[in-house]
Write a structure and sequence with these properties.
Chain A is α/β, with parallel strands linked by helices. Chain A has 2 domains: about 170 residues, Peroxisomal Thiolase, Chain A, domain 1 (3-Layer(aba) Sandwich); about 150 residues, Peroxisomal Thiolase, Chain A, domain 1 (3-Layer(aba) Sandwich). Chain A has 9 helices and 14 strands. The radius of gyration of chain A is 18 Å and the shape is globular.
Chain lengths: ~325, ~325
């Protein structure tokens, strides 16, 4: 049936909620984030507990901002970057709501939105929350090195975003419509540099975007923005090159959440990454721009690198995935 | 809307495929498993690669046994126990098919079946594969201790099953119908003993089972079997006690995949666990009994413990979940 789903009932994102760290709030999203942290520990004793608390906060916030009580929500779809997605599972423990754990690394925001929209469009549920997040310090010590070691970062590395974003998707009410989704395939171009996620993920983003245009018959101009998750500056450039080679020019309207989240003077050359990156940008800045009418139609393509320290340690390359969601106002 | 979904179009499991290790095949499933390993390394150089190969094998097997080509499959829904679900992601890399990664620990078989059935019943897809697996040696070294250390196991511990199971779910053809599902909530009774998963998971299984009966108005007798995933002998007993205290007697028709998978003389006192446990038992033994008409209606309740070594190391208790799927012939 192809990879592209159409949601005929047009489930809507009726409310969102976001939390972001101190560094993140210095950039473009600072004015749009609901909860700006003054302390990246968020009052907790460990980075992992802080990450979990952010996720619980945005799930709770999305429900409250949508004017619902917790007991009215039918399902939470969530995942994160930590081993066994403990942030999502432990956050869900606070809610007496059915829970579907998903894992798509940094593609989780798009994956959870697509699953939520499918469950609503299929008529199974009225109100579903999709949420994800990440924390710089928990990701560093799990995927790379403990911060205490003071390791240097190579220039192709990205900075994992401290932040979380949640969306309440409903079959009623006013909001941003989810009209379709293109679920991605796992794509592996043989990149083995775990510090160069942008290069690894760009081919997956390209595959999903080109599939989307081929299956829908649309041109890139159909969208005000084609927003990728966290390719960063280098990955974003690779994506544009790859698409252009295949005859699709997305240079005019492509932006990458990783590329825009930090201020240029912060010297994060490649920008942000992490499941929280696209989750925060979408659910704060982009959602606000869509609700105000400044953006009417965007293709949101979150990208994920599906590696682990074990797979990389065993010499494997990095399989990646990208899921696309069509958002319309 | 409650936690229980009804799949009116009755998506069907039209084919299954299973792989199991040497120890596993000595028990009841030995005669029903499609691929019985003579070497638990499955010809690979690492445990993780062996686990991934098992998963790829059953995805491929389910598609082939269903008479389809890989290009006819619309979606793979899969997950496993390893960090970042690398077995599922790397297995999906071999297939040019859209992929949804899920994480529900040992509840993954039920979670993936429910998601697959929802995507088919919602009219989005024709053919979806749901699959999961686990490997004793990869789980031991990730969750507990490397085998080389020769650590002893406490009597309440279970043995992670080496095996994988996959199911092809279609909107056409003959097979075992998936008529409903009850998606579980995260339940945490405060158990902190990581060697006593059965005790941790039993309350989650009880919550989902009681919710299922309350929402459907059915009695336990409506099912030939109420099959839990991997509570083991102790957890299974706790579940029966908890349900009985709440006025629901499931003792007459409850079995647990973990309790039945190993031969009694193997001295695995609590039995098996792992995502592969219920996946293998369901897709070999139980599927065969349903297709032959010996079992007509079962409630398949896979249970998952949503901990990580980090969460336990930080003193957290073990949140658990159970998803139930109604299977009818």
């Amino acid at each position: 049936m192809g990879q592209t789903l159409r949601f005929h009932s047009q489930p809507k994102i009726v409310a969102t909620s976001t939390v972001a760290g101190t560094k993140e709030c210095e950039g473009i999203i600072g004015r749009y984030v609901e909860t700006a942290l003054s302390d990246d520990m968020y009052g907790e004793s460990t980075f992992e507990k802080a990450e979990c608390k952010m996720l619980a906060r945005v799930i709770d916030g999305a429900i409250a901002n949508g004017g619902l009580g917790r007991e009215e929500v039918d399902l939470i779809v969530s995942g994160d970057l930590l081993n066994q997605i403990i942030s999502a599972s432990f956050a869900a423990r606070d809610f007496s709501v059915p829970f579907l754990g998903v894992y798509g690394a940094c593609s989780t925001m798009a994956e959870s939105l697509a699953v939520a929209a499918a469950f609503i469009d299929g008529g199974f549920y009225h109100h579903v929350v999709a949420a994800t997040g990440s924390h710089f310090a928990s990701a560093e010590r799990q995927y790379r090195y403990p911060l205490e070691l003071g390791c240097t970062r190579p220039p192709q590395a990205q900075w994992t975003v401290t932040g979380a974003g949640g969306a309440l998707i409903s079959d009623r009410g006013d909001g941003v419509k989810i009209t379709g989704a293109t679920l991605g395939k796992v794509v592996d171009f043989g990149v083995t540099d775990v510090n160069n996620m942008g290069a690894a993920m760009a081919p997956a983003a390209c595959d999903t975007i080109l599939t989307h245009f081929r299956e829908t018959g649309l041109e890139p101009e159909a969208y005000d923005l084609i927003v990728t998750g966290d390719l960063g500056a280098l990955g974003s450039r690779i994506l544009k090159d790859l698409a252009w080679e295949k005859g699709v020019d997305i240079t005019a309207n492509h932006v990458d959440c990783g590329e825009i989240i930090y201020k240029v003077i912060e010297d994060e050359f490649q920008g942000g990454s992490g499941a929280g990156c696209s989750a925060v940008v979408l659910n704060s800045y982009l959602y606000s721009k869509m609700m105000s009418g400044a953006l009417r139609r965007i293709l949101f393509v979150a990208t994920g690198a599906l590696l682990s320290t074990v797979s990389s340690g065993q010499g494997e390359s990095i399989p990646c995935i990208a899921h696309a969601v069509v958002l319309e106002r």
